[in-house]
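Below is how a single chain appears once it has passed through the pipeline. First comes the sequence as given, then the structure the pipeline wrote out for it. We keep one example in the README because the format questions we get most often are answered faster by looking than by reading.
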Amino acid sequence: MDSTFFNKVAAAILLSVGSAWLASVVGGAVVPTIMPAKPAMSVPGLERVAIQPYMAHADAARGAVLVQAICGSCHALQPQATQSVGPVLGGVAGRPIGSDPRYAYSPALVALRAQVWSDQNLSDWLTAPARFAPGTRMSLMGLPNVAQRADIIAYLHTLNPSPLPSQSLEKSKP
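Resulting structure:
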C-alpha cells in the first residue's frame, strides 16, 4: 500500500460526508418543515362521513366482537371498571370528551371537553384519532369501514348505565 491509497480513502470519506451534508441542506431548503393546511393526498375511507344513516343498520353484537378485538386490550368496558392503558369505555357515548376524572387525558382531548361523544364524534374519532385530536396518545390508526364504526358505536350505547337522551347524541363536532 502506498500513500495514494490513503489519499483516495480520505478523499472518498470527505466527499461522502460533504455530499450528505449538501443533500441535507438542499432538502431542508426545498421541503417545508411545517405541516400543510390541506394534505396532498387523501387515503380512501378516511374522509368524514355522516354516521346516522349507518346507525339504523348497526348491530351491537358485531360491535361487541369488534370492540373486544380492537379496543379490549387497552380499554376496560364496564363503567365501574378500573382504568387500563386507555380510559374506560363504559358510559362513553353521550358524555363530554375527556371528562372521566379517573383518567389522565392528553392535552389534545382535554381541549375538546366542551364537546360530547356524540355518534358523529365517535365515528370521526374512530376514523382517525390523530386527525380528530392532533396530539392524542391513542395509537389506533383508524377504522375506514363506516359500517364497522356504526356497529362499535351501537355497542358502546349498550355500555351506558342509563338510556341516553336523544339530543345528547345529536351534538357533534363543528
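Confidence is low (pLDDT under 50) at residues 166-174.

See the next section for the split statistics.
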